[in-house]
Amino acid sequence: MASRRRKAQRATRTVPALTEALLSMAGDQGVEAISVAELCRVAGVHRTTFYGHFESVDAFAVEALTGLVDEMATVDVAEEDSIEAIMSSYFAALTEMLGLLRDRRAVYRGLFEGPVAPAFREALRTTMEDRIGLALVAFHARRIPVPVDDALAVKFLAGGMAAALEQWVRGEGTDLEAGSQEIFDLFPGWWPG
What we know:
193 residues; mainly alpha
C-alpha cells in the first residue's frame, strides 16, 4: 500500500517537473531539438519513467502544452449563473489563455511551426471544441436560442478559436484585453455577450 502511494506521488510530480523543464528548454532551442535524455536530466526524472507515460518529447510537448491552455480555458458554470456572468467568465478565461501564449510565445510558436504542428493544432482544436460545447449546454439551459446545429457550431467555432490563438502566437500583440475583445468580436451575432 505504501509503495503504491509513493508511486502515485512520484507520478504526480513527474509531469509538472517535465513540463517545467520543457518550457525552460523549448524557448531557447525549440521542442524538436530536445532529446528525452536531456529533458529527463533537467527535470530530474528517469528516462524509464518518461517512457512509461510518453513515447517521445514531441508527444509529451503536445499533451503538456495543450494541457496548459486547457487549464486556462476552464470555466466553471453554476446553475444560478446569469448568461452575463458566464460570458464574463469565458472572456476572463480567454484573456488568461492569451497571457499564457504571450508569456511563452517562443515555445508556442515552435509548436505551430515545428514537426508537431499538426498534432498540436488538432489537440488545441479539440480543447476548444470541449469549451464551446460546454457554452452551448449553458445556452440551452438558459433557453438562449442557437439557430444552427450544435455539432456544426462547435466544429466551426472551435476551428476559428484555434486559428485565432495561433494568429495571436504568431503576432506581436501584448494587450490581453484588446486581443480577447478582437476574438470575441469574431463570434456570430447569436453568441451572447
